[in-house]
């Protein structure tokens, strides 16, 4: 074991362990959702939500481990957490919008883009002319 881990208080070691297990489990659940769900829109939904929470748990565990081990506040993980929390939802939204746009341009009605008549297809129109 490292010197920092041997000097870690029991309460910090337990909290770090719980956060690592929970964060890892959330990331695995998101990966299973990516692998098991049938359509693109369903597959992108699982990881988009779980990556923020799972990565957040892992980064808080890292911050707590190094802060308690070094007896000072370590803030590198706060910056990383803010970056992940700000960029992951935006990237997911942009990827989903691009997929909806592609499906509307190609006229794919079975993709899920027309569910709930949010993006209705016209009845007589096929794919738009280039």
Automatic annotation (TrEMBL):
Region of interest (Disordered), residue spans: 110-130
Assigned keywords, A-Z: Membrane, Transmembrane, Transmembrane helix
One Pfam family cited in the UniProt record for this chain: PhaG_MnhG_YufB
GO terms for MF: sodium:proton antiporter activity
Keyword Methyltransferase: no
Spans through the membrane: 12-34, 46-66, 78-100
InterPro entries: PhaG_MnhG_YufB
PANTHER family listed in its UniProt record: ANTIPORTER SUBUNIT MNHG2-RELATED
Listed name of the protein: Cation:proton antiporter
Organism of provenance: Ramlibacter aurantiacus
């Amino acid at each position: 074991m490292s010197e920092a881990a041997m000097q870690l208080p029991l309460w910090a070691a337990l909290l770090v362990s719980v956060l690592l297990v929970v964060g890892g489990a959330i990331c695995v659940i998101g990966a299973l959702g990516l692998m098991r769900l049938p359509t693109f829109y369903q597959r992108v939904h699982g990881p988009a939500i779980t990556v923020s929470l799972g990565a957040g748990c892992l980064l808080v565990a890292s911050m707590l481990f190094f802060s308690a081990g070094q007896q000072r506040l370590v803030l590198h993980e706060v910056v990383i957490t803010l970056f992940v929390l700000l960029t992951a939802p935006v990237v997911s939204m942009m990827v989903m919008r691009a997929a909806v746009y592609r499906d509307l341009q190609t006229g794919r009605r079975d993709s899920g883009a027309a569910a709930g008549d949010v993006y209705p297809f016209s009845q007589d129109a096929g794919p738009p002319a280039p």
